[in-house]
Every structure is written in structure tokens, then in C-alpha cells.
Write a structure and sequence with these properties.
This protein has 257 residues and is α/β, with parallel strands linked by helices. The chain has helices spanning 42-50, 62-67, 92-97, 104-117, 122-135, 152-164, 168-176, 181-199, 205-212, 216-230, 233-239, 245-255; strands spanning 14-15, 20-21, 24-25, 31-34, 53-58, 79-82, 141-145. Strand 5, helix 2 (62-67) and strand 6 form a beta-alpha-beta unit.
Length: 257
């Protein structure tokens, strides 16, 4: 099955529904995930509109949204959940990338530490909880995205899969679909130029590829952080994000057949 949609100007766009979920099945054409839409063509914006998107959660920081504002299709009327927390200091990603020589090893260490804290970051808790509050109450298709559509987006999609009852192997496989070598090869020169602008030097291609990709260990670290504090992923969903029995049932009705 091909989950990725053939969009060129909206990267990493794919359907993260249509998985077996215990005795039930996730709906197709309801749950989409992607990178930002700041570089979207008019044609692809219209194609996105044709998917019937009525709810979008933009997981980027306020500064990210200001630097790369989302483009919208004509007649745009979708509800947008955007994180309203003020900037709390420098963007940690930008700070890290500008901190010195970037290697595959220190990039991986940064990402592991990021996933340790991401589930309990106040801005993530706010946006994630609002997503689940609205998901069960809306109609039409939905779109989850951040900047690259891999980390903040990856965690939220995995949590949605968990509520649906998707097998852990499928949750991880969907998360790892971000790793598209063909797309990385096309994007690498642009990403490397951005890093060089920040740091004054161009990292090795291997380090850039690590920065653009995801690893199973990352998502495992996020899940471990949830379990340490709340006993289980379901405990995290309930205590941290407010996904009680009623809200969970509403989400299940929305995304399962």
C-alpha cells in the first residue's frame, strides 16, 4: 500500500489511517500528516483542499510560523489549532544547529534528549490535548504537521494510533516512513545550505541525513518518558492530555470503522 501522496511542494504528506486496529480498522482519508505548507504551490494547495481537510494542527513554535507562514487554498475555512504559548527563549533546534560542528553522533544525542522531554513540554501538552479534544468533535479530513512532519508530528500520530489500538509494530513502521532516501537526496543541498548559514560550515552528508531522518530509538524514548511519569502511554494520554474515557470514545468513533 502506498501511504505517501505524490505532492512535491508539501513534503512528507501521507495518510496515517487505514491500519488494522484490533478487531476494528482505522478509516482511510481522514488522518493526514505532513511537513509545513509554506512552500506549497497553488495546485497542491487545491489538491490538499480536495482531500476535505477541515481540521489542522500546526505544531510549530510561534517563531517558526512567522518565518514560514502557511499558505492556504482559496476559500480556506478549516479550523486551525496553533500553539499559543509565547516563545520561551531561543528555538532549541536553531540553538543546537548553531552551536558548533554537527556530526551524526551529536545529532543523534540531541534527538534522543529531545524525545526524552518532548512529551511533557508545555507547548506540546497544550497542542496535543487540543487535538484530541477537537478530533472527536469534527467532520471531514484532518492534517497534523510541524516543520518537517517527523518529530512533534510523529509523536502525536503515534499517540493517535495508540488510542485506535494499532499494533506497536505498525505504529513504529508508520513513524519510520519519514525516512525516504529519494526525498532526502533532493532536500539535502537545501538543508545543508541552511545549516551552513547558521554554523559557518557545511556538515558531512551523513550528519545531514541523520538530521533529516528518524530512528526507532527516538519514539521509544518518548514512550519511555510517558511510562516513567504516568505508568503507561494510556496513563499519559489521560493524566497529561485529558483523554478520559469519554474523549477516547469520541476519537474512536471518529477514526475507526
Amino acid at each position: 500500500m502506498t501511504r505517501k501522496l505524490p505532492f512535491a511542494t508539501i513534503e512528507n504528506l501521507r495518510d496515517f489511517g487505514d491500519y488494522a486496529a484490533g478487531q476494528r480498522h482505522m478509516k482511510k482519508g481522514v488522518l493526514f500528516r505532513s511537513a509545513h505548507q509554506a512552500e506549497a504551490s497553488e495546485e497542491e494547495l487545491e489538491a490538499l483542499a480536495a482531500l476535505g481537510v477541515s481540521l489542522i494542527v500546526d505544531l510549530r513554535r510561534p517563531g517558526e510560523r512567522e518565518r514560514n507562514p502557511s499558505k492556504r487554498w482559496k476559500g480556506f475555512a478549516a479550523e486551525v489549532i496553533a500553539n499559543d504559548h509565547p516563545e520561551d527563549g531561543d528555538d532549541p533546534w536553531q540553538t543546537f544547529m548553531a552551536s558548533g560542528t554537527i556530526t551524526s553522533d551529536n545529532m543523534r544525542d540531541y534527538m534522543l534528549a529531545y524525545y526524552d522531554r518532548a512529551p511533557h513540554d508545555a507547548r506540546h501538552v497544550d497542542a496535543y490535548s487540543r487535538w484530541f479534544a477537537r478530533l472527536g468533535e469534527t467532520e471531514g479530513a484532518t492534517l497534523v504537521h510541524c516543520a518537517a512532519g517527523k518529530d512533534r508530528t510523529g509523536i502525536l500520530c503515534a499517540l493517535t494510533h495508540n488510542i485506535a489500538g494499532v499494533h506497536p509494530d505498525d505504529i513504529m513502521a508508520d513513524y519510520l516512513l519519514t525516512n525516504d532516501e529519494e526525498r532526502f537526496a533532493k532536500r539535502l543541498p537545501f538543508f545543508a545550505a541552511h545549516v551552513e548559514e547558521l554554523t559557518g560550515s557545511r556538515p558531512a552528508d551523513e550528519a545531514i541525513m541523520t538530521a533529516m531522518g528518524v530512528e526507532a530509538a527516538y519514539l521509544e524514548r518518548a514512550f519511555a518518558a510517558m511510562k516513567r511519569q504516568h505508568g503507561s502511554i494510556d496513563g499519559y494520554l489521560n493524566a497529561a492530555l485529558g483523554v478520559d474515557a469519554a474523549r477516547r470514545a469520541a476519537v474512536e468513533r471518529r477514526i475507526l470503522v
